[in-house]
Amino acid sequence: DVAKLLQGLDARAGEKALAIAAPYAAAVLAHMGLKVTAQESDAAVLEVVGAPLADAGVETAVAPLNQPQGEGYDLIVSEGGVIGRPESWIAALRPGGRLAVVERDGASGAAVLYVRGREGVSRRELFDAAPDLLPEMTPAPAFAL
């Protein structure tokens, strides 16, 4: 599914990318000639994948996943699933920037491409997918009538 997410982004060499909980995507994008930052919330993940990512030219950051490090990205990708529209990720895109993520509400979900325009954001479903949800991007349960 990562390859299909990246294909949906139409990534181009020289673009600025953020890979959130997506080390494999970060390495692929760097190999394609993009300037990539890989963001993880758990420093232990970067202890394992940090050296190979650095060798590929990827910068790394440890920060909560709902707080993208930096702004003005041409594209953002995540290998994990989210519930609902990730507003903070969309806000980190430049106008014309693209976000590929899987939205899940239950057992299955859909890979979605968001494009941030000057006046708003468009959304297009790409394919069915069901990666694990990112715990930090899952809202706390709430009581409802």
Describe the structure.
There is one protein chain. This protein has 145 residues and is α/β, with parallel strands linked by helices. It has one domain: 3-Layer(aba) Sandwich (Rossmann fold). It has four helices and seven strands, in the order αβαβαββαβββ. The protein has a seven-stranded mixed sheet with strand order 3-2-1-4-5-6-7. The chain is globular. The relative contact order is 0.19.
CATH class: Alpha Beta
The averaged pLDDT comes out at: 94
Tertiary shape = globular
Strand order of the largest sheet: 3-2-1-4-5-6-7
Largest sheet: 7 strands, mixed
- Total of helices: 4
Describe the structure using short key phrases.
alpha/beta, seven-stranded mixed beta sheet, 4 helices, 145 residues, 7 strands, globular, 37% strand
What is the fold's blueprint, element by element?
Blueprint: H1 2-9, E1 16-20, H2 23-31, E2 35-40, H3 43-55, E3 59-62, E4 73-82, H4 87-91, E5 93-104, E6 109-116, E7 121-129
Parallel strand pairs: 1-2, 1-4, 2-3, 4-5
Antiparallel strand pairs: 5-6, 6-7
Q: Could you write a compact summary of the structure shown?
A:
With 145 residues, this protein is α/β, with parallel strands linked by helices. It contains four helices and seven strands; from the N terminus they run H-E-H-E-H-E-E-H-E-E-E. The protein has a single domain, classed as 3-Layer(aba) Sandwich (Rossmann fold), CATH 3.40.50.
